[in-house]
Structures are given as structure tokens and as C-alpha cells.
Amino acid sequence: MDEKFNANENAENATPKAPAAPAPSIDFGDTISLRRALSSPLMVAINVLLTLIFAFNLIFSSNFNVFYLLAFIAGWVIYGQAKKGSSFEGGLKFGNFVAKFYYIVMYVAAGFLFIGGLILALMSILMPQAINEVSSEIYENGYFTYGSFKFSVGSIPTGLIKQIAEVLGVAVSEVFSIIMMIFGFALMFGAICMLVINIVFTRKISLFVGSLKNNANNPVVTKNDILKANASRIWIMIVGIFTAIISFRGLIPISKAIIYEGAPAGMFAQIIGSSFSTFITGGVVAAAYIVLSVWIGKYFVNTERK
Hints:
The chain is mostly helical. The chain has a domain at 112-202. Helix content is 75%, strand content 4%. It has 9 helices and 4 strands, in the order αβααααββαβααα. The protein has helices spanning 2-13, 34-38, 41-60, 66-84, 89-141, 159-214, 229-247, 251-259, 265-301, and strands at residues 31-32, 143-146, 149-152, 221-222. Strand 2 (143-146) and strand 3 (149-152) form a beta hairpin. The longest helix is centred in the middle third of the chain and has 56 residues, at 159-214. The protein starts with a helix and ends in a 5-residue tail after the last helix.
């Protein structure tokens, strides 16, 4: 009897078990449909603009840009695979290769540019000394040597001519030294700018495209699976707006040529042609950036239930 009473008392005083925690669920409000994004009308617009960029560069400036070629081929391959309903992993792998290839080439180009600028800066320091040595040899012997070669300059300058020659020699060497120093630092500054652009802009694009490739076969993809989508969208829009502003510089020579009625017909046609091509090509490049930014924002940042 006591045992039964104790059992009932223990049962009444037992702490009720907490309900089991619900299993984690996916927030389908953030779910991304890669196939829908890659086969969308905006994707078609991006590919058309990339094709026009390549064509305009080839027609107007005879510039065969391999990156524009690879970009529009990759875009159409990805769109075609997504539209047909087949696997688009191959197209995204190709697009990822193009993005990484451009990213690496930018680093290599910046490195060569910096080295070239450094060489010019060092030459600007050594040039005055080399010119002074050559001048001294000329004033003493009437010739100067370079390796096994001897270059004669005729009679040895004397008197006032020698003084003038010495002053001019120093002045010329200093001017060339300053010019080379300026060009050297300009090249190094350009290389640093390329590195910054590559880190801030190109790297984000490369990570974004790489995450698309990595999620090509995933049945459920969320915003967290796509890297640097919002950062890519913002920077691409900034670059697009900046490119659009720069492209309007092509209208300035056109307006000047129209105002200046005395320009020869051939010069007028040349100014109009080159400026118009600059304006059109720059405008198409800007449009491609802006549409790409809108596409990323619509399908990978401001996602809705799909």
C-alpha cells in the first residue's frame, strides 16, 4: 500500500517533459531559383548587351577583346542550358573560369605596370649621372664610348660653346629625369589603382559567379548560399553609372565640330565618327553594368517566394 502511494505521489510531483524543439526549417521566402534567374528576360538583355560590346569594339576600334568574347559566349551558353531545362553547371563552370581568368590577369597586368613604373623611376635617378659622364668624356676626348663602340663628335668644344653645352646638357638631363620620374610614378599609381579595383570590385564578382557554379546542382538555394550578391550589385551599379557619365564625353567633340564650321569636311567626319563610336560603345557598356546590377538585385538580393 505504501509503495503504491509513493508511486502515485512521485508521478504527481514529476516535472513534465518540455515539448521537443521543432526541426529547423528553411525560410522559403529567401529561396532562390537559379534556373528562373538564368533563363530570365534580364539574362537575355545582358547577353545581347555583351554581344554588342564585343561587336562595337571590333567594328569601331578594331579591338579584339578576348574577355568580351568569352563573356558573351558564357552568357549565351548558360542561358541556353537553363532555358532548355538541362543542367547549366557546365555553363556556370565556363563563366566562373572567365571571371577567375580576368581576376588573375588583372593582378598580372598590375604587377607589370608597377615594375615598369619602378624601372622608369630608377632610370630617372640614374640618367643625370650617365649624361654627365658622357659629357665629361666628350669634353676631354671629343668622343664617347659605349661598350666597344666609339662615337666621335668632331672637335672638342671650348670657351663659351663649352659652357653653353654644359648648361644645356645639365638642363636636358634634369628635364628628362623629371619627365621619366613623373611617368614612373604615374604607372605605379595606375598599378595600385588596378589592384584596388581588383580587390574591391573584380574579386566580389568572381566570388559571386563562383557561388552560382557551386550551387548549380543544389535543389534548394538560399540567399546565404550566394556570396557577395549585394556587394556585387552595388559596385556594378556604381561602375555602370560612372561609365555612363564618362561616355557622354564623346558628345563634346561632336558639339565642337558642329560649332566650328570652318573645319574641313574630312576632319569633321573623322571627329563625328570617333566621338560617336566612343559615346555608343560607352553607353552600351554602361547599360550592361546597370542591367546586370538590376538582375542580381531582383533574383539574388530582393528575393520573393518562388
